[in-house]
Amino acid sequence: MSAFLGSIHYMMFNKIKIAADRNRFVISAFKAKHGAAVDEAAKSALPNGPVGFGDQKLDEILGDNPIHQFLQGLIDTVEVAEGALVTAFLYRFPDDAEQLLEKAFFDHGLETAKKFVNGVANNSPLSAFQNIVGANYLEGMPCDQVSSYRSSNKNAVEVTHSDCLHKAKWDEAGAPAHIMCKLLDKWVEGCAKGVDPNLTLTRSGAIINGEDTCRCSVALPSN
């Protein structure tokens, strides 16, 4: 089956692994604050433990499965797991869970961008942001094509999503969609800051609020 794998499939697997790693990152952040109580909460959400792939390569785990269905299944598994984990922590640690989650998502996005920013060092900050998020942010399969980027001026890019590919998985996990949406914004904001500390993200619309599209802008300060 590996003969049928292309760069797009490896990129998708990388996105899935980054999302799975974010779940482990969140667990570690909570353990630093709440200790052993986090293990019980995490196990209630993920009885088989966090989704992880270790050093396994895509062609090693694909077997004879059709690649599109296989990757979509991994996306569903990782996103449902994330929703379940967030929900469990919100319930178990109501006093500070939302704050800890926001920081963990932001920090993971920041670290992710810093790993890749040298590879786009010759790009402008906005172009580098677009490249890094486009290559590492999990949002469905390439054929879904729900995201678009448009430069509104030399200092800003507008990001539009024509559909929310996450909500069905959040609903399956019983996760609050408005919090999950905010957490993913924090991850993207962390990526922006990892590219350039001067970049800011502003949300201007969300499908979960009844609007037709999700919209945000990422901008440098105007001089």
In short:
With 223 residues, the chain is of the alpha+beta class. It contains eight helices and four strands. The chain has helices at 7-34, 37-45, 58-62, 67-92, 97-116, 125-136, 167-173, 177-195, and strands spanning 147-153, 156-161, 200-205, 214-219.
Query: How far apart, in Å, are the first and last alpha carbons?
Result: 53 Å
Strand percentage = 5-15%
Net shape: globular
Largest sheet descriptor: 4 strands, antiparallel
Structural class: alpha+beta
Order of helices and strands: HHHHHHEEHHEE
What is the fourth-level CATH superfamily?
Answer: H-NOX domain
Please list the strands of the largest sheet in the order they lie side by side: 1-2-4-3
Number of distinct helices: 8
Give the mean pLDDT: 93
How many β-strand stretches?
Answer: 4
Structure write-up:
With 223 residues, the chain is of the alpha+beta class. The chain has one domain: H-NOX domain. 57% of the residues lie in helices and 11% in strands. It contains 8 helices and 4 strands; from the N terminus they run ααααααββααββ. A hairpin with a 2-residue loop joins strand 1 and strand 2. Helix 2 crosses helix 4. The mean pLDDT is 93.
